[in-house]
C-alpha cells in the first residue's frame, strides 16, 4: 500500500467527485452540486522537454451553471516553483478545453502551507497585473473538525478529507475515532476505500498508528489490504510472543538463571529468526553465554 498523504489529498476527489460541492460550501464559494463528474487525463505536457502534471483533474457538470474543470493539487509544503506551475496549469487548461471555466483547489495539511498557497499569484508589472490566479485552499484552517458520529455518517467523504487535513491536530485521536465509528455500519464497498485513503493521508505520522489501532479493534466490517496487513501483523506478533515464553520456560527447566537484563532482552525481541536461534541453543546450552552466542 502506498502510504502517501499527497496521494490521498487529491485522490479522494477521484473516488468521490461530488465531494467538491461540499468542500466549496465549507470554503464559502457557492457552486451547485454536480450532476456528473469525469476524471480527465492529468498530463499537461506540450511538445517540449518540460513535463507538467496536475495531481487530479475533473470535469464537473452542474445542472444550472454548466460544466467546469477542477484541477486539484495536494501540497505538503511551500514550493516556490508552484508560482510558475499553477498559472501554467490554469492557462493551459483554459486553452485546451476552450470556454470551460477552470478552478484550482489546493489541499494542505498544515496552516503555514495553506496560508502560503492561498496568496494570489500575479503575473505582470506592479502598475498593471496581466494575470492573477486565486487558488481555493482547503486545509486545517477551514476544514471542519468532525467529532460527531452522526455528522460523519451524513458525509463520509467530507469526514475523511477533514480527518486527513487535520492529521497534525492535537485532538486527531478523537477525529479518527469518530470516523472509525461512523464506518462500522457502512458496506465494505464504502468502508474499504475510506480506510485506505485515511491511512494514506496520515502517512508516517503518529496518528497513522492510532488509525491502525482503531480499525484493528473490529476488522470484521471490512476486508481491505490494510485489514489483512493488520491481521498478519497480529499473527506474527502472537507467534513471536509464544517463542519468547517458550524460551523462558526451557531455560527455567534447564536451571539456567537469567539476569533481569537478559529476561528483558528475550521478552522485547521482535525478530522471529533470532528467537528461533536462541531456542535451538537453549536445547543443549549450559550457560546463558551459549544461549546467546552468535555461531554456537
From TrEMBL:
Write down the superkingdom of origin: Bacteria
Supply the name of the protein: Rpn family recombination-promoting nuclease/putative transposase
Amino acid at each position: 500500500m502506498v502510504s502517501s498523504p499527497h496521494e490521498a489529498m487529491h485522490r479522494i476527489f477521484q473516488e468521490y467527485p461530488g465531494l467538491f460541492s461540499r468542500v466549496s460550501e465549507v470554503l464559502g464559494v457557492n457552486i451547485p452540486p454536480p450532476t456528473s463528474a469525469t476524471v480527465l487525463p492529468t498530463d499537461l505536457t506540450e511538445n517540449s522537454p518540460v513535463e507538467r502534471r496536475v495531481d487530479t483533474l475533473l470535469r464537473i457538470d452542474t445542472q444550472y451553471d454548466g460544466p467546469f474543470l477542477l484541477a486539484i493539487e495536494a501540497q505538503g509544503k511551500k514550493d516556490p516553483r508552484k508560482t510558475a506551475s499553477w498559472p501554467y496549469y490554469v492557462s493551459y487548461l483554459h486553452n485546451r478545453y476552450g470556454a470551460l471555466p477552470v478552478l484550482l483547489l489546493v489541499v494542505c495539511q498544515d496552516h503555514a502551507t495553506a496560508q502560503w498557497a492561498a496568496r494570489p499569484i500575479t503575473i505582470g508589472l506592479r502598475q498593471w497585473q496581466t494575470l492573477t490566479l486565486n487558488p481555493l485552499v482547503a486545509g486545517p484552517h477551514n476544514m471542519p473538525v468532525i467529532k460527531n458520529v452522526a455528522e460523519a455518517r451524513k458525509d463520509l467523504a467530507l469526514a475523511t478529507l477533514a480527518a486527513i487535513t487535520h492529521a497534525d491536530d492535537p485532538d486527531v485521536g478523537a477525529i479518527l475515532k469518530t470516523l472509525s465509528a461512523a464506518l462500522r455500519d457502512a458496506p465494505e464497498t464504502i468502508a474499504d476505500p475510506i480506510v485506505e485513503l485515511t491511512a494514506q493521508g496520515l502517512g508516517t505520522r503518529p496518528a497513522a498508528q492510532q488509525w491502525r489501532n482503531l480499525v484493528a479493534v473490529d476488522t470484521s466490517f471490512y476486508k481491505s489490504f490494510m485489514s489483512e496487513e493488520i491481521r498478519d501483523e497480529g499473527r506474527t506478533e502472537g507467534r513471536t510472543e509464544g517463542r519468547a515464553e517458550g524460551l523462558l520456560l526451557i531455560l527455567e527447566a534447564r536451571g539456567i538463571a537469567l539476569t533481569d537484563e537478559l529476561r528483558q532482552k528475550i521478552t522485547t525481541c521482535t525478530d522471529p529468526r533470532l528467537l528461533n536461534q536462541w531456542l535451538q541453543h537453549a536445547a543443549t546450552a549450559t550457560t546463558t553465554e551459549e544461549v546467546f552466542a552468535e555461531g554456537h
